[in-house]
């Protein structure tokens, strides 16, 4: 475990690139269009990659702010990933623009607006799965793994700072 923590930023950087790379590969080469929730989950990785790059350029890779900002990005992605799994499993409601549900209305204009604002890909549809796990489920597990190690690293750095003071 100490080896993982020692090289954590490199591992996190590589995992983020692999996550984005596989999502873009599925989207562009296998024509698996993402829903709005899938796109929101990517934001975490889109934030982590430049954050780590910027802190490496300025040789501040052990800065606690880098790890806290990564933690915030991870929590953001995890929130949307878990919500997306809940939508897929019909446990949680999705946003109206992503769920494919139309509200009752007496206005033809309102109905037209609802239809035109509907997402092309419904968030509750699972476009592919591996061993019964959807992309949102896999991403939830990945983000939980990342959150665990990033939190351990923050606690260890904080503890070591307090211990050495």
Short description:
This protein has 165 residues and is mostly helical.
Characterization of this structure:
The chain has 165 residues and is mainly α. The chain has one domain (2-95, 124-164): Bromodomain-like. The protein has 7 helices and 2 strands; from the N terminus they run H-H-H-H-H-H-E-E-H. It has helices at 2-6, 8-29, 36-57, 64-88, 96-99, 108-116, 135-164, and strands at residues 129-130, 133-134. The protein has a two-stranded antiparallel sheet with strand order 1-2. The longest helix is centred in the last third of the chain and has 30 residues, at 135-164. The chain is elongated, with a radius of gyration of 19 Å.
Rounded to an integer in angstroms, the radius of gyration calculated over CA atoms is 19 Å
Overall pLDDT level: 86
Structural class of the secondary elements?
mainly alpha
Report the sheet-strand fraction: under 5%
Which stretches of 5+ consecutive residues score pLDDT under 50?
none
CATH architecture name:
Up-down Bundle
Can you tell me the number of structural domains?
Answer: 1
CATH topology-level name: Bromodomain-like
**CATH class placement:** Mainly Alpha
Main β-sheet: number of strands, strand sense, barrel status? 2 strands, antiparallel
Task: Note the gap between the termini.
Answer: 25 Å
Number of helices: 7
Q: Helix share of residues? A: over 70%
Order of helix and strand elements from N to C terminus: HHHHHHEEH
Strand order of the largest sheet: 1-2
């Amino acid at each position: 475990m100490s080896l993982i923590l020692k090289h954590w930023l490199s591992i996190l950087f590589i995992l983020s690139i692999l996550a984005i790379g596989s999502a873009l590969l599925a989207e562009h080469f296998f024509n698996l269009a993402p829903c709005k929730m899938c796109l929101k989950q990517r934001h975490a990785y889109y934030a982590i990659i430049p954050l780590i790059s910027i802190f490496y350029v300025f040789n501040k890779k052990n800065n606690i702010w880098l790890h806290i900002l990564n933690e915030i990005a991870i929590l953001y992605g995890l929130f949307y990933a878990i919500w997306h799994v809940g939508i897929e499993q019909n446990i949680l409601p999705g946003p109206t623009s992503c769920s494919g549900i139309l509200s009752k209305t007496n206005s033809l204009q309102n109905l037209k607006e609802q239809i035109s604002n509907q997402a092309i890909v419904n968030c509750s549809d699972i476009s592919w799965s591996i061993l019964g796990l959807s992309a949102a489920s896999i991403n939830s597990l990945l983000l939980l793994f990342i959150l665990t190690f990033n939190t351990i690293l923050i606690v260890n750095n904080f503890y070591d700072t307090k211990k050495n003071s």
